[in-house]
Amino acid sequence: MRLENQRQQDTATALSIAAYLQGDALETIMAIAPLSQWEQWLGAWLQWLKVDQSPIHAYELSIQFTTDIGIQTLNRQYRDQDRPTDVLAFATLDSPVAIPTAALAQDPFYLGDIVISVDMALTQSQGHGHTLQTELLWLLAHGLLHLLGWDHPDEAALQRMWQQQQQLLEAIGMTLATSAYTQEAG
Fold first, then answer.
1. Do 108 and 140 touch, CB atoms closer than 8 A?
2. If 0-12 CB within 10 Å is exposed, 13-18 middle and 19+ buried, where does residue 80 land?
3. How far does Cα 107 stand from its chain's mean position?
4. CA-based, 20 to 30 A from 119: which of 26, 30, 41, 74?
5. What is the pTM of this model?
6. pLDDT (tens digit per residue) in 147-162
């Protein structure tokens, strides 16, 4: 199943975002929030981060919500790791193919694809003491940062990334006050 929404545009900043939700776990995701809400959260983050890859301030990305089995298949295929993980990100910026300037001037910039295991998110939310919605947003923020070029090759970089994720959640009115992530990042 795949859900698409008309592009959401914030007229105050002329930023638009189109997210495409797909995967095995869409019923669970749609019970948490409709597609338009996911797009609002992503749009708020792109504004907060001052993303500027698109001269027309228009962005697209896909989010696949899957199971541990689904993400394990992708993790094995693309990262040679035969185990489930919580989130994978496939960034357009990692592509060696340059996007023509004329295309950027008229089409939304495709940031890439984020894949989240809802099974893993549920387990982690219980272990970290927060809701499934909060965990999914935490993982979505993590995936978005990867699409924008962030990485965490060492513990210090991971801590910086977690701090950025905390700030992104705060930008949309969420907090991880009792989360194990905040204890680990602090």
1. no
2. exposed
3. 21
4. 41
5. 0.86
6. 999 999 999 999 999 9
